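## tool: complex_structure
## caller: assistant
## args:
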Amino acid sequence: MANHITDMRTPLARAKGRGGLSDGVEHWEAERIGAVLLGPLSLWAVVQILRLAGHDRQTILAWAAKPHNAAPLAGMILLAARHMQLGLEVVATDYSRGWRRTAIKLGIRFACLLIAAYGGASIVKILQNRPQADSRG
Amino acid sequence: MSLDGREALYDGSNSDGHFLRRPMSPHLDVYRFRLSMALSILNRISGVASAVGFGLAVTWLGSLAAGSKEYGRAQRVVNNPLGKLALAGWGVATVYHFVAGIRHLIWDDGHRFEKHQINEDGRITVAVTGGLSGVLLGAVFVLSRCRRKARVQG
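## result:
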C-alpha cells in the first residue's frame, strides 16, 4: 500500500468538533450513584434475608405486604435493575461492536426493564392480596 | 504495510510527516500474574453473575406473589442441591462485587493507588469476601434449616 497522505489535517483537527465518543461522564456517574445508594439497601436486604430465611410463604407475604418493607424492596429492585443495566452496557461496549453491540445493548435494556417491571408488579400484587384485617381506614 | 485493519492502526506519522510504526501496546499475556489482575476481572464477572442471580431472585419474588403452587415450584428449585449451589455462588459474587465496589469508590476519590496499597487492599478484599460470604451463607442455611425443622415439628 502506498504511504501517501490523504488527509492534510492534523489528528487534533480531525478530532475537534466531533464531540465526545458517545456521551460524557453521565453513564459512569449514574453507575456510581446507583452503587452508593445500593450499599445501604443491600445491608438492609441482608438483614431481612436473615430474618425471613426458612419461614413459610404466609410469613414472607405478610412481611412484604408492609409498606415499610415493600418500599425499600421496590426501591432496591429499581436501583439494582438500573445499576445492572449500566454495568452490563459497559461490558457489552468493551467486548462487542457494530450491529452486534446495538443488539446486545437493546437486549440488556429490555431485560433490565422487564426485571424492574416484573418486580414492581409482583410487589403490587402482594400489596393488593394482603390480609383484609390490615386494611381498615 | 498490511491490509489487516488492526495492523493499520499501528501506522502513524510524527510531526515532520515521516511515517513510523507505532509501538504495540502490551497485552495481558506478557505480564506475570498478579492478584490485582484477577480481582479486577472478577469484579466484572461477579457483577454479571449478580445480575443473573438478581433476575432469578425477582423471578422468585414473582412466584411468591403468584400463589402457593408457583411458590412451591420455586422453592423446589431453590432447595435442589444445584439451586443451593447457585444461591451460594450468587451470594459470594454479590459480596465480592460489594467489597470491590467500595474499593472502586475509594479509587474514584483518588486514593489507594500506590502499588503496595493495591496489593495490601487486594489481600484484605479476598479475606473480607471469604469471611463475610462464609458467615452470611452459613447463617442463611442454618437459620432456614432450623426454622423449617421447627415448622415441621410444631
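## assistant note: The domain at 27-130 of chain A is CATH 1.20.1300.10 (3 helical TM bundles of succinate and fumarate reductases). Chain A touches chain B through 36 residues (CB under 8 Å). Handing back to user.
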